[in-house]
Write a structure and sequence with these properties.
Blueprint (H helix, E strand, L loop, with lengths): L4 H28 L12 H28 L13 E11 L5 E11 L3 E6 L19 E11 L3 E12 L2 E17 L2 E12 L3 E13 L4 E11 L6 E12 L5 E12 L5 E16 L3 E12 L7 E11 L1
Antiparallel strand pairs: 1-2, 1-14, 2-3, 3-4, 4-5, 5-6, 6-7, 7-8, 8-9, 9-10, 10-11, 11-12, 12-13, 13-14
Length: 320
């Protein structure tokens, strides 16, 4: 016997909210448990093996950066806000209703020196802060150098330049970026990001972002993100408004956050592109470097007449 569309639709609703219920139930259970102070003895053979491999990769990575550092900046002293070198690897999968599953691997290498940093990644080009969560695979590979024109504790001005490779084409880019962080407004904290960029294939563009944080408690934080992007590929300004409520369950080993986002454009007239909401549950798998997250989500795109589209995103991170 065949199933009607209503039966299939009801099953999707049950599965979606079933995942949400499992995440919330697990979070409540975690919040009631005492945090583990030392879980070294609880590591499995697999986690020990992975941790050893991670340590070996980290040692080789730090050895290379130290040699570069000693060669280029042997007489320079680091300031108090010198950042640590990082090698981040993320594998992510996304399944949306009516679409084939998408999988992508993200790499982000950051080598920090007194007056500059060397960056290698395969992230999307300058984009709205939440758009990369859903919009396609990051197929570009970029490498470049970022020079710090001004580097203070709460104010950073940088100039970056490099190349991006996509579809066997090489594109040159430059970017000026200003970050003003930790602006106190009574109980709120604001962060301001402004960047102006140029790509040899698409010309100039700019990205503006303002974040407002309000701590309800030591564990609960509310964040409002307002962002606007202009480039040759956008319809006027591409806009984003997101609201995020996060809760730290166990000393950042388990975190849940609920996000609601809206996206729009300004040309040829102002119009909404889509709405999206998701619940993300992020857990630390191996202390302190491997993380897993699961996020059931709902999207309401304008080109689908704002009908509900169910989705599920899974991700695993490694920090070396």
């Amino acid at each position: 016997m065949g199933h009607s569309w209503e039966d299939i639709k009801n099953k999707k609703i049950i599965i979606f909210f079933g995942l949400v219920f499992i995440i919330i139930f697990n979070c409540i259970t975690d919040a009631q448990e005492e945090p583990v102070i030392n879980n070294t003895n609880n590591k499995t053979n697999t986690s020990r093996f992975l941790s050893r491999q991670r340590e070996n990769i980290g040692k080789n990575f730090r050895s290379i950066t130290q040699k570069i550092d000693e060669y280029l900046f042997q007489d320079k002293e680091y300031d108090d806000i010198q950042q640590e070198d990082k090698f981040l690897l993320r594998y992510e999968g996304l399944k949306e209703e009516g679409k084939d599953p998408e999988f992508k691997t993200k790499i982000n290498v950051s080598l920090y020196f007194p007056y500059l940093s060397i960056l290698i990644n395969n992230n999307e080009r300058d984009n709205l802060p939440s758009s990369e969560l859903l919009d396609g695979n990051a197929e570009e590979v970029s490498t470049g150098i970022k020079f710090y024109l001004l580097k203070l504790k709460r104010l950073v001005l940088s100039l970056g330049t490099g190349i991006t490779i996509r579809d066997k084409r090489t594109v040159v880019y430059s970017r000026v970026k200003l970050l003003r962080s930790s602006i106190k407004i009574k109980s709120w904290t604001a962060n301001f990001h402004q960047s102006v960029f140029w790509y040899s294939d698409n010309g100039f563009g700019e990205l503006t972002q303002v974040d407002f944080d309000y701590p309800f408690s030591e564990k609960m934080l509310f964040r409002a993100i307002t962002a606007g992007l202009y480039s040759k590929t956008t319809k006027g300004f591409a806009l984003e408004q997101s609201f995020i409520l996060s809760y730290d369950l166990v000393k950042r080993e388990r975190i849940i956050f609920w996000r609601v986002s809206g996206f729009a454009h300004t040309e040829p007239f102002y119009d909404v592109d889509k709405y999206r909401t998701d619940i993300v549950y992020r857990v630390q798998l191996i202390d302190p470097w491997m993380f897993f997250d699961i996020a059931p989500q709902l999207e309401f795109p304008a080109d689908e007449n704002f009908r509900k589209i169910y989705g599920l995103r899974l991700g695993i991170d490694g920090v070396f």
